[in-house]
């Protein structure tokens, strides 16, 4: 389900396919700074999700872990983004055995999610929105309601849009 408007309480519209993706610099669960500009031409999914340790988010991220190597073989990285602190994300990633980065959009609270139009000010959390980015541009984006996981089939559909 694509969103044609920005999420509740967000300060920016949702970037559309072909537009420049907002830049970011966020710590991952290990405290390493991940910067969009350092990713160069590599394709990556930026997967915004509300909170670590929640049921829908957990099952959704577990499904992404199952396809992580498949996407990596196609030179596409997965990175989850939530407003949780990096220490909470470290525990979450360790317990769930996630092999991909979980980025902490903790402070300023939700700033990156807001720049992607993927923040709900009423809940104080990221919305369930995914962006496929390559060479600094949005290739595709999709979302689902807060209570519904995004389908892996939709990620594969997005992968079909990649160009080298």
Q: What would your notes on this structure say?
A:
- The protein is an alpha/beta fold and about 160 residues long.
- The protein is built from four helices and nine strands; from the N terminus they run E-E-E-H-E-H-E-H-E-E-E-E-H.
- The strands form three sheets. The protein has a five-stranded mixed β-sheet with strand order 5-4-3-8-9. It has a two-stranded antiparallel sheet with strand order 1-2. Strands 6-7 form a two-stranded antiparallel sheet.
- Strand 4 (about 75-80), helix 2 (about 85-95) and strand 5 (about 100-105) form a beta-alpha-beta unit.
- The radius of gyration is 14 Å and the shape is globular.
- The two termini are about 25 Å apart.
- Mean pLDDT is about 90; it is low at about 1-10.
What are its keywords?
alpha/beta; 5-stranded mixed sheet; single chain; 164 residues; 24% strand
Topology:
Layout: E1 25-27, E2 33-35, E3 43-48, H1 55-72, E4 76-82, H2 86-96, E5 101-104, H3 111-115, E6 119-120, E7 125-126, E8 129-134, E9 137-143, H4 152-159
Parallel strand pairs: 3-4, 4-5
Antiparallel strand pairs: 1-2, 3-8, 6-7, 8-9
Offer a concise description of the structure.
The chain has 164 residues and is α/β, with parallel strands linked by helices. The protein is 26% helix and 24% strand. It contains four helices and nine strands; from the N terminus they run E-E-E-H-E-H-E-H-E-E-E-E-H.
């Amino acid at each position: 389900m694509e969103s044609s408007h920005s999420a509740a309480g967000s300060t920016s519209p949702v970037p559309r396919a072909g537009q420049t993706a907002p830049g970011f610099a966020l710590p991952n669960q290990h405290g390493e700074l991940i910067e969009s500009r350092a990713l160069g031409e590599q394709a990556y999914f930026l997967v915004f999700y509300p909170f670590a340790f929640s049921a829908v988010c957990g099952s959704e991220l577990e499904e992404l872990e199952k396809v992580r190597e498949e996407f990596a073989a196609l030179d596409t990285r997965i990175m989850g983004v939530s407003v949780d602190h990096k220490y909470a994300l470290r525990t979450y990633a360790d317990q769930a055995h996630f092999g991909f980065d979980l980025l902490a959009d903790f402070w300023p609270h939700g700033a990156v999610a807001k720049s992607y139009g993927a923040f709900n000010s009423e809940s104080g959390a990221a919305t369930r929105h995914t962006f496929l980015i390559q060479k600094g541009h949005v290739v595709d984006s999709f979302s689902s309601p807060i209570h519904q996981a995004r389908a892996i089939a939709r990620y594969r559909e997005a992968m079909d849009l990649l160009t080298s």
